[in-house]
Amino acid sequence: MNTAENNVQRDAAPAIEVRELVKRYADKLALDYLNMNVRTGEIYGLLGPNGSGKTTAINCILGLLTYDSGQIRAFGGKMGPTAYDLKRRIGVVPQDVAVFNELTVQENIEYFCSLYVADKMRRARLVDEAIEFVGLEDYRRFRPRKLSGGLPRRLNIACGIVHQPEPIFFDEPTVAVDPQSRNSILEGIKRLNERGATVVYTSHYMEEVEQICDRIQIIDHGRQIAIGTADELKRMIEAGERITVEAPALSANEALCQRAVSMLGDLEAVHEVTFENDELVVVCSQGEHNLIDVLQVLRSLDIPMGHVSSRAPTLNDVFLALTGTDLRD
User: Fold this and answer.
1) Alpha-carbon gap, residue 210 to 50, rounded angstroms
2) One domain for residues 95 and 210
3) 9 & 131 share domain
């Protein structure tokens, strides 16, 4: 699909629309008037800590859970447990590999395709295309337990996409796979999107989300706390740059160390200064001259410097700033 065609598709009606969704489990409010709007043709990242409501939201969207109030629409139609015409247009690749160990790779893919496609000739073509797409041509007759590395994950994906659904939900598809398999999976998702598929992607690997997602929604405690592109989300937090300077001389001169930390902390753009393990770490707002300003202070104090680095904020920085650093169950 060319860029112009893709832009037209992304401006079309939402593939998934969630309005004011509320879901309770007894006294616990799992979804707190949650809104989502997944545009047709985009890769939409859905992030949140454990227990934030991601899985509950997805299960409600898929019609696997009832909910207390709100509205869910897919392709303009009302989604619910009996909306079978809409459900067959949706694909799901779950986090856990969900295939039959008694069947071969090809038989597994054929089975899942048969749930959606009755025509045998079309089904055979779709199965071949799915096998080729995930690179399992040499493993057609293998049973899943004989597959190693990232191959079971590729089979899982083939079973979820074989009927050419749109949209497709990917729930942490790269968990516990090697870097080569992870790259193959991510490239495959981008190719699906380039062919026109809308993708909803969840992961705890922030670099993956930043790499492939057009927009990202962060939820916590069942409600949205931020949404936007990766760059837009980064502009939401104060910390825009992290400057690290090796300065071992400060370990032997406490007074000089305190003076350096104080002077750096007085810079207009600086939010935090720490010194530990011979390293000064300066956290600043986004700006063009932060590194120059920091180095000028250190030079004015005649502090010898080793390695100096500057890092822009990452999506992981944004996630932790917005959701906190406490461990979740």
Assistant:
1) 19
2) yes
3) yes
